């Protein structure tokens, strides 16, 4: 477990990110991360990497620009979106299940207006280059996204590969899909449901959130189980990336067991 206690403030800091690098799971239809040492210790006495990557890998933040034409890019998102109090909702889900507004309403602790919301389904334990991880993951329904918008959430985070159910994305029979050729057939066989009827809109939940100006973090991981069902303070560190639709992000949760920490006055 990656928990560190700051000796000055007494804050406990909890890692909420998956490790990023060579071999990180990449979305079907997208290229893998490619990285190599352009400068090496044995040859130059220093090390520096060159990297080619899709920004939507590992624990990453999406700006509204990702799905909303002329939406805010990463550089334009106000910094107060990246820090604040919120709730870690423990909503366990199995293969192909949907996170609904009712799930959010009944989850503990309750979501307050302006919260950062982290939704934990347990899917972060399956994080891997696997058909199950990408194709069978749970996802938010459109009404769940609308519920979060009404709560004026400053940031919405999930431990799944994407905000939406995979059958509502291009992994299924939408837009340029299916990127996973057998997904619709496997879904229908496993659930008895018609994917086109159950998930008729492309990225409806994610477009709802980003359209409301709410950035999102996908593939939350690390030790998020430590905070499941609790309130905490969160900090995310995306790039100040002009015209950037997404980037890998370090995401951290903070709790104050002693209740003595305060922010410096800056004097």
Automatic annotation (TrEMBL):
Gene3D superfamilies: Putative cyclase (3.50.30.50). InterPro entries: KFase/CYL, KFase_sf. GO terms for molecular function: arylformamidase activity. It comes from the Bacteria. One of its GO terms (biological process) is L-tryptophan catabolic process to kynurenine. It holds the Pfam family Cyclase. SUPFAM superfamilies: Putative cyclase. This is Kynurenine formamidase.
């Amino acid at each position: 477990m990656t928990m560190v206690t700051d000796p000055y403030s007494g804050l406990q800091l909890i890692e909420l990110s998956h490790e990023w690098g060579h071999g990180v799971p990449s979305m079907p239809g997208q290229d893998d991360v490619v990285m190599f040492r352009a400068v090496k210790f044995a040859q130059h006495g220093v090390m520096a990497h060159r990297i080619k990557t899709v920004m939507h890998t590992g624990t990453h933040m999406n700006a509204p620009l990702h799905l909303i034409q002329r939406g805010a890019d990463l550089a334009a998102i106000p910094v107060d979106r990246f820090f604040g109090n919120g709730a870690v909702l423990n909503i366990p889900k199995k293969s192909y299940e949907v996170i609904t507004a009712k799930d959010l309403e009944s989850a503990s602790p309750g979501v307050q207006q302006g919260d950062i919301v982290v939704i934990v389904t347990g899917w972060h334990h399956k994080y891997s280059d696997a058909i199950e991880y990408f194709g069978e993951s749970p996802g938010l329904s459109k009404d769940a996204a609308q519920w979060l918008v009404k709560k004026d959430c400053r940031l919405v985070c999930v431990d799944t590969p994407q905000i939406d159910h995979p059958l509502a994305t291009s992994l299924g029979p939408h837009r340029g899909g299916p990127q996973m050729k057998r997904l619709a057939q496997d879904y229908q066989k496993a659930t008895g449901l018609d994917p086109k009827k159950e998930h008729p809109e492309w990225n409806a939940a994610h477009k709802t959130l980003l359209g409301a100006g709410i950035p999102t973090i996908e593939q939350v991981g690390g030790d998020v189980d430590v905070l499941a069902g609790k309130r905490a303070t969160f900090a995310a560190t995306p790039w100040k990336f002009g015209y950037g639709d997404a980037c890998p992000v370090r995401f951290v949760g903070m709790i104050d067991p002693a209740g003595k920490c305060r922010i410096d006055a800056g004097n």
